[in-house]
Specification:
- There is one protein chain.
- The chain has 323 residues and is an alpha/beta fold.
- The strands form two sheets. Strands 8-9-10-7-11-12-13-14 form an eight-stranded mixed beta sheet, with helices on one face. A six-stranded parallel beta sheet has the order 3-2-1-4-5-6, sandwiched between helices.
- The protein folds into two domains: 143 residues, NAD(P)-binding Rossmann-like Domain (Rossmann fold, 3-Layer(aba) Sandwich); 153 residues, Dihydrodipicolinate Reductase, domain 2 (2-Layer Sandwich), CATH 3.30.360.10.
- It is globular and about 60 Å long.
- Helix 5 packs parallel to helix 6.
């Protein structure tokens, strides 16, 4: 039985991840930690969890906790994950894996040294929507894929205008970079899952509007080891009420278009015409990945698809793009 302890129990744990740990057979949540002990207590009581802490070391050293979920901002992922692994407890870390490639490298080194696994919350690798995309590629429906294009643009969030209380995702000391690090990480990990490693990347980043100090506009070009070429553009200061969330694959037999976050219908265009594919997500979007991890830790399943050795590649790519 896997008895989880959560370090961090903010918004991401309310629905996306938290409930899934108790829905999976052979798993439950026995303790949570948050620096504000009253918030930790409130979360624990609302979710039927027996213990709460305001100190991460106390949770990690709790003898009842035998696996740790780190759901804090990226700046503390390495610290808490390393402490958990050195305590002999497998760790599941929110994405991105850490605030820099170098921190990821150290985390993986500790995992190898201790023999304790580190998993990362790139759950899109397990969602039916993206597995359908993968199936279409693997079945050869697109022929030889030549190019990949990412287009992402959203207007500023209301909180981006509050200079005295900016969200942590645009504070480099907490997030590692800006919204690019938070959102593009999903896209690059997904491309790694579909096409393998990117061997070369160049990028440019700018702060065009000045709402915060980190980048708000990014462009990149990259090449996979397989020879597929890719490009991407990201704007986090697009006009009000506009949104672009689009990935496009062009192959010798067809074109495939889908989204990363909106889960709009997957569109296949080829000589046979245009087809749409739709797939629903689980209620708790991280459920399938957590299910894989729990089964593996209980000795009942294969190695999960998102791990430290796969997730580090996304941090490397993003760090190269941002310079």
């Amino acid at each position: 039985m896997i008895h989880w302890g959560f370090i961090g129990c903010g918004n991401v744990t309310e629905k996306k991840s938290g409930p899934a740990f108790s829905k999976v057979d052979g798993s439950d949540v026995v303790a949570v930690m948050r620096r504000d002990v009253n918030k930790a207590k409130d979360y624990a009581q609302r979710h039927g969890i027996g213990k709460w802490y305001n100190n991460a070391a106390d949770l990690i050293n709790d003898p009842l906790v035998n696996a740790v979920y780190v759901a804090t901002p990226p700046s503390t992922h390495a610290e808490y994950a390393i402490a958990a692994m050195r305590a002999g407890k497998p760790v599941y870390v929110e994405k991105p894996m850490a605030a820099s490639y170098e921190e990821c490298r150290i985390m993986n080194q500790v995992s190898v040294e201790t023999g304790i696994p580190c998993f990362v919350a790139y759950y899109r690798r397990t969602l039916p929507y993206f597995l359908r995309v993968k199936q279409l590629i693997d079945d050869g429906i697109l022929g030889e894929i030549s190019t990949v294009q990412i287009r992402f643009a959203i207007p500023p969030y209301a909180t981006d205008y509050d200079r005295d209380n900016l969200p942590w995702r645009v504070k480099k000391e907490l997030a590692g970079a800006g919204y690019f690090y938070d959102l593009a990480s999903h896209q690059f990990d997904l491309l790694d899952f579909l096409f393998g490693e990117i061997e070369h990347v160049q990028g440019f980043s700018e702060n065009r509007v000045g709402l915060y100090e980190v980048e708000d506009t990014v462009a990149a070009a990259f090449r996979f080891k397989s020879g597929v070429l890719g490009s991407g553009s990201w704007s986090f200061v697009a006009p009000k009420d506009t949104r672009t969330d689009r990935i496009e694959f062009v192959g010798t037999k067809g074109k495939l278009t889908f989204s990363t976050f909106d889960f709009s219908p997957i569109i296949l265009e080829n000589t046979s015409g245009i087809k749409e594919f739709k797939k629903d997500n689980p209620e708790n979007i991280q459920f399938y990945l957590i299910h894989q991890i729990v089964n593996y830790l209980n000795g009942k399943g294969d190695l999960p698809v998102s791990r430290g050795d796969t997730a580090i590649r996304t941090n490397y790519i993003m760090d190269k793009i941002l310079g």
